Amino acid sequence: MASTTPARTRQAAAARKRAVAKPDNGTDALDFEPLRIAANDDVVEERVPLFYIGDDEYTIPKQIPPGVALQFLREAREHGRELATAPLLIRVLGEDAYEALEQSKALDEDQMEWIINKVLDLALGRKQQGGKAK
Predict the structure, then answer these.
(1) What is the pLDDT of residues 113-128, one digit of tens each?
(2) Among the four 45, 58, 88, 111, which has the fewest Cβ within 10 Å?
(3) Residue 87 class from Cβ within 10 Å (0-12 exposed, 13-18 middle, 19+ buried)?
(4) Which among 67, 58, 46, 51 is positioned nearest to 124, based on CA atoms?
């Protein structure tokens, strides 16, 4: 005889989803409505160039999601700012761009500092000071 447990589980899960979608009567007493945040699949990420190595363009998101700053702040709290910077750069630049910087023989200290500071400024929502790296 076939088991009906999977069907019951699906039905129970569907009922929970329906229950979550309906406004709770308890929220009537609150002075706000719950936020609806789009799923990651619904967000289109526009990218802009940050630097070039030779003719190769390396880009970052035009709008860095606030979650990136939250991750950096957690890492900084747990491990210190210096150790939190590398994961931030990898997340914003991407693995390929980070490795390109690691392997570049032409990258100088001023350029590296400019890239790091620009990513930190953009990720943490600091005021942009414009300008290009030297």
Answers:
(1) 999 999 999 999 886 5
(2) 45
(3) middle
(4) 67
